[in-house]
Design goal:
- With 293 residues, the protein is mostly helical.
- Helices cover 78% and strands 0% of the residues.
- It contains 12 helices and no strands.
- Helix 2 runs antiparallel to helix 3, helix 3 crosses helix 8 and helix 4 crosses helix 7.
- It is globular.
Length: 293
């Protein structure tokens, strides 16, 4: 699918900003959830609870049902964007650490652009390509790219996170035709259902091992936010944006996530802001605006 003609609707940009706010805040809130759940269990909760909610929304709005020919593409998208993506990230984060994970996640816009161009799906203008690179530079400034580690005990984690970014970039590029045909609500509901089933061999044992009766109220509130915000709302809004905007533009907004996370840490965790954060904020915002022109 080629790059859409003309600028994306304002509602698309608004949706993408909300997505980055929710995704940026979920590691802050996830701190409470992961005190009681393993990464695999958290992936299981997100997929198994998110799938019926999204399918229920699809039923309420009478979204088109997929045909038999749609099932295989939906299962493939679920593998790239849900099950494989979330498992790789959770396991990579555990091994590589937060700094390495955020630095490598910043490569998603670049990989998305390269995949889209290689598959002939997009031909973005040079302004968007340069804007993506500027936004990535801002992310690297924010997280401190000079602290990126390649020690032998973190090599596997780095490779898992890099695989995660590649799978999500492929998902962003390949999902557009299916989402355009089935609509954002219908397509993402079925994608989540397939993703939950595909991840079940990995998430099922972890969910069984959780002492649910011992999870306190703040843990349940954290889970509720993660399910409704960084799971249901973000995947739906991303699907909506992919229906009207090129995948490279959708990926560019990911550069805002570390900035939102840093601000969330300031507000909710009391971390003092630094000059690096201010400089990175200017560079990231400038890159996003440049790419969205």
């Amino acid at each position: 699918m080629s790059d859409p003609k003309g600028p994306a609707p304002r509602s698309v940009h608004a949706a993408l900003i909300v997505v980055q706010v929710l995704f940026g805040l979920w590691p802050v809130v996830g701190k409470y959830a992961m005190a009681y759940l393993s990464p695999a269990a958290l992936v299981g909760v997100r997929t198994l609870v998110g799938a019926p909610i999204l399918l229920g929304l699809a039923g309420l709005v009478r979204a088109p049902r997929p045909t038999r020919q749609d099932l295989l593409p939906l299962a493939g998208l679920a593998f790239l964007g849900i099950s494989l993506n979330q498992i790789l990230y959770a396991e990579g984060l555990k091994r590589a650490g937060a700094v390495n994970a955020v630095v490598l996640t910043a490569l998603i816009p670049v990989i998305t652009l390269l995949v889209g161009m290689a598959l002939g799906r997009e031909s973005p203008p040079w302004s968007r390509r340069l804007g993506i690179l500027v936004a990535c530079l801002g992310v690297w400034i924010l997280v401190g790219a000079e602290r990126f580690e390649l020690r032998s005990d973190r090599t596997l984690g780095n490779l898992l996170i890099l695989s995660n970014t590649t799978s999500y970039a492929l998902y962003l590029v390949l999902a557009r035709p299916t989402i355009a045909r089935l609509g954002p609500i219908g397509s993402i509901g079925w994608i989540f259902l397939f993703g939950a089933l595909e991840a079940l061999p990995f998430t099922g044992p972890a969910l069984w091992a959780v002492p649910w009766a011992e999870v306190p109220s703040q843990g349940w509130w954290a889970l509720g936010f993660i399910i409704l915000g960084p799971t249901v709302a973000t995947y739906f809004l991303n699907a909506y944006a992919l229906r009207f905007a090129p995948s490279s533009l959708v990926a560019t907004y990911i550069g805002l996530q570390p900035l939102v996370g840093a601000l969330g840490a300031v507000v909710f965790l009391g971390d003092a802001p630094s000059l690096r954060t201010a400089v990175a904020a200017v560079v990231i915002v400038a890159g996003v605006i440049w790419a969205c022109r």
